[in-house]
Amino acid sequence: xxxxxxxxxxxxxxxxxxxxxxxxxxxxxxxxxxxxxxxxxxxxxxxxxxxxxxxxxxxxxxxxxxxxxxxxxxxxxxxxxxxxxxxxxxxxxxxxxxxxxxxxxxxxxxxxxxxxxxxxxxxxxxxxxxxxxxxxxxxxxxxxxxxxxxxxxxxxxxxxxxxxxxxxxxxxxxxxxxxxxxxxxxxxxxxxxxxxxxxxxxxxxxxxxxxxxxxxxxxxxxxxxxxxxxxxxxxxxxxxxxxxxxxxxxxxxxxxxxxxxxxxxxxxxxxxxxxxxxxxxxxxxxxxxxxxxxxxxxxxxxxxxxxxxxxxxxxxxxxxxxxxxxxxxxxxxxxxxxxxxxxxxxxxxxxxxxxxxxxxxxxxxxxxxxxxxxxxxxxxxxxxxxxxxxxxxxxxxxxxxxxxxxxxxxxxxxxxxxxxx
Length: 421
Hints:
Blueprint: E1 2-3, E2 39-43, E3 53-59, E4 66-67, E5 72-77, E6 82-86, E7 91-96, E8 103-105, E9 109-114, H1 120-142, H2 146-156, H3 186-195, H4 213-221, H5 254-267, H6 281-290, H7 297-311, E10 333-335, E11 337-339, E12 342-344, E13 347-348, H8 356-371, E14 385-389, E15 409-412
Helix pairs in contact: 3-4, 7-8
Keywords: Acyltransferase, Lipoyl, Transferase, Transit peptide
Pfam family, one: Biotin_lipoyl
EC number: 2.3.1.-
């Protein structure tokens, strides 16, 4: 949980007393303390070191609700995850200044907290005046000249007749698209050959429709080489993905914006690449042996990488200030995971010390949390070495982009059968 109410009470100095009012002039006698209205601003918290703005996903509480210290108030979408944010003080949620779906810069006010019910009205008044001032400033800064505004209105006015266009998704599965090669993991292909399963009729459940081992096993268990039913004729796709309006401009999501900034920052780092081919017979044999116990290939690769880094600590180091090396005391393997509209790198901490079975269970937990956007900062920002695996998509090789703040990243491609002795 992140504490977002981290300001002190408003000071009593007249020059700094923004939210303080006296209860009654007659009570202001020498020797008696002044009674102040205590209204605090609720700020947009910084949920990660790279976060510059946040989006309000939902308000857990509504205006007028009583809040207790440590209670969740709002869910904020950062550049990495959705997080519940809790209050650091008791009081009442007096005024919400940024509605659900709104975006606010880190450190800007998103709501006001009143200490008592009597102060809610005053807080609402201050929120309204603040909102009016901001709106007026934004309007004056962005208003085009009258003639340009009229032309813009004319250009954006709706036509007399509006044609509704509906994009129909094709029934052809992306893993075995018409005229395209089948996308399946290397192990799924090998398993399909052993079980005599025709992959062209198997519906993949992996990322982007990739066929994975469990899909092949399900097809074999069903006693059919093709588990999909006869496809219903569907309109031929126009080439555009369903839901995309051609010619439109869609702004980045919070996560996409963060990925973009990180990648641009990474390009400023001098890097070099080294690649070579390894024989995976022993790895494949081990995976086949322990797969039934819940071990994933990702966990195996992470474990193997961590054990190699124990022998080569220089590769696990980083250079953050351009003047010195940091030799990390822990080996934390960050693994790239594709999400809807973005990318994140959950971290397997102390991967060299954790046994392979626990590591696999932890990895499944991290992936589930990542896709639910519930990762905590320490679960995605503490990596010392990054692993990116595109082998499950049939990719032979690729250049991985170095995440900022780390020293190395390893790109893993697909294994291929070899006739070499």
